[in-house]
Design a protein that fits this description.
The chain is mainly α. About 75% of the residues lie in helices and about 5% in strands. It is built from four helices and two strands. The protein has a two-stranded antiparallel sheet with strand order 1-2. Helix 1 runs antiparallel to helix 2 and helix 2 packs antiparallel against helix 3. It starts with a helix and ends with a helix.
Amino acid sequence: MKSRTKGKSKGMAFLFSIKFFGLMFVTGRLVAYISWTYELVKNWAIPTEPFFAKVTVLHSSNALTVEGYLAFAIAYIVAFGLVILGMLQLEKSTRLCTDTSLFQEKIGHAFKKAGISFLIFAFVTFWLDTFYLFFESTSSRTLDLLSTELLVFTILGFLLLFLSDVFKEGITIREENELTI
């Protein structure tokens, strides 16, 4: 019985560490994005530091206007809001796992919501970067759409959806087990 409790606490510690490092990452990125956007709005000119897409544009003619950059900046900030929502759902699921019995429908739903949030974030940032690439008119473009950030959130999203299905199956098995004499 002791080993089950110990294993459960290690798993919960892992999920709490994912949440902690994820929140540190998101907070750092959001501060950078908001400060870049603030400089854009304050001066109503494109800041000297590069735009924060995963697209590196060399020798740009700045085909995008300030309003266009502002739209992309707001879209990125909203996209990172999805990561915060996912982290909150991850915290909710870990709290439910530690406070109550393991296989509950609420836990599976929280994992599913977190996974969907992370996958939507990955899709939206991929779409924004591709869209940004097409708006910049330049002859030399470097595109890093398969960045670490995109891969991590895609894998984490699918992992959490898998966990959601595991919890759903666990609920079914538990209910069948309770009906067995």
